[in-house]
Design a protein that fits this description.
By secondary structure, the protein is mostly beta strands. It contains no helices and eleven strands. Strands 2, 4, 5, 6, 9, 10 and 11 form a seven-stranded mixed sheet that branches. The chain has a four-stranded antiparallel sheet with strand order 1-3-8-7, with no helix packed on it. Strand 5 and strand 6 form a beta hairpin. The radius of gyration is 13 Å and the shape is globular.
Length: 114
């Protein structure tokens, strides 16, 4: 059974940092682009960042310079390092891979609040 499981979310003060992890199991995704998305309360889901199989990265404008996406294909892991967090980063964060079908994790809650 293929699964994506996110972890690392939590409550952090503005300006703080979190590192999200996404563990893939059941198959390898080393040949596919992997994504982090987020959905804030009352808002549509948006793409935050993605990383190609070759390691090229792309970020949405609001997180550029603050977030870093990375992957470890040997461990079948995807990461999102989030620095200088802002209240507007509060959302449920999901990892996603589009292979023959789309795979999604269950999400991890990130809350940025003082």
């Amino acid at each position: 059974q293929v699964q994506l499981v996110e972890s690392g979310g939590g409550l952090v003060q503005p300006g703080g940092s979190l590192r999200l992890s996404c563990a893939a199991s059941g198959r390898s995704f080393s040949g596919y682009t992997m994504y982090w998305h987020r959905q804030a309360p009352g808002k549509q889901r948006e793409s935050v960042a993605f990383i190609t199989s070759g390691g090229a990265t792309t970020y949405t404008g609001s997180v550029k310079g603050r977030f870093t996406i990375s992957r470890d294909n040997a461990k079948n892991m995807l990461y999102l390092q989030m620095n200088n967090l802002k209240p507007e980063d509060t959302a449920i964060y999901y990892c996603n891979v589009v292979a023959e079908i789309g795979y999604w994790g269950q999400g991890t809650q990130v809350t940025v609040s003082s």
